[in-house]
Amino acid sequence: MTLISVGNVIVDLTIDVPALPERGGDVLGRATGTTPGGSFNTMVAATRQGLPTAYGGAHGTGPFGDRVRAALAAEGIGVLQHPTPDTDTGYDIALTESDGERTFVTVFGAEASLTADALAGIRLAEGDLVHVSGYGLLESTNGRAIAGWLGSVGSDHVVLVDPGPLVGDIHPAVWAVAQARATWVSCNLREARLMTGESEPAAAAEALAARGDVIVRLGADGCLVGVRGALTHVPGFPVTAIDTNGAGDAHAGAFLAALARGADPLAAARAANACAAIAVTRRGPATAPTLGELAQLLD
Description:
The chain is α/β, with parallel strands linked by helices. It has a single domain (3-298), classed as Ribokinase (UDP-N-acetylmuramoyl-L-alanine:D-glutamate ligase), CATH 3.40.1190. It is built from ten helices and 13 strands. The chain has helices spanning 39-48, 63-74, 116-120, 143-150, 172-181, 189-196, 201-209, 247-260, 265-279, 291-298, and strands at residues 3-5, 9-16, 30-38, 53-55, 78-79, 91-96, 102-107, 129-133, 158-162, 184-188, 214-217, 223-227, 230-234. The chain has a nine-stranded mixed beta sheet, sandwiched between helices. Strands 3-2-6-7 form a four-stranded mixed beta sheet. The chain is globular and about 50 Å long.
C-alpha cells in the first residue's frame, strides 16, 4: 500500500517578518531557509507516519530540481517521473509573521508541466492512495492532465484532493471532475468559505459535506469532518504555534496514513490534528512528527 502524490513539489524560500508591509512599503525580514515544500510536506508527513510514499509529479533540471530530488531521497520517498529537461523546479517565497501565520508568492516551474503521457505511466497497485493538490489543478499548471487521469483511477483507491488557497482559480470543469472523483476533500476554513459562500464554519462544512466526504481544517480548533452528510467536530490539541507553514499539508498526509493503518475517519482526523499541532511548534514547512512522536501526544 503506497501513497502516490501527483501534487506540486516546489522549493520554499522562507522568511520571518514581524508583519506584512503595507502596499508599497518595506519590512525587514530574517531568512530562515530554503527547503522543498508544497506537496513534499504531505508526503513527508505520510512517510513519517509509516505510509510508503512516491512522487508522481514533475520535477525540473537545475539546482531547485536537484534539491527536491535529494530531499525526497532523504525521506525515503520514491520518484516516478524523469526530470523535465531545460526547466527547473519552481519556488515560492513564504513569509511567516510573528503569530505564525504565513503568506506565499509562488512562481511555477517544471512541476507545472506534468503531461497526460507521464501520468499514464503511473501504475496504481491494489490499496494505493492518491493525493491531488489544487495547485496542480490550475489551468496554468496540470489541471487538464490530472483531471483526465483521475477518470482512470479505480473506485477502490482513496483519493484525497486538497484544493489549496487558489481554489477559486481552478477551472469549474476541472474542479467538477476532481470533486466528483475525490474520496475526501481536505481544505482549510478560508477555502471552504470560497467554495461555498458560507461564512460560518459549520455551514460551510455542511455545504461541502452535501457533495461528498470532507475535512474542514480549523487550525487550533481541530477540524470538522463530514461523512455521508453527517458533520462531526474533532477537537485540536492546544500548542503554541511558531510556524504554520505546511500545517495543512501535514494534516492531509497524517490523515491518509491513519486511514491506511485502518483507522476510521474520525480517529484519522484526530491523528491528523495531532500531527499538525506538533508541526506548527517547529520552524519550517516539512516538520511533521514521526509515528512515535504522534503516539506520545495521542496517549
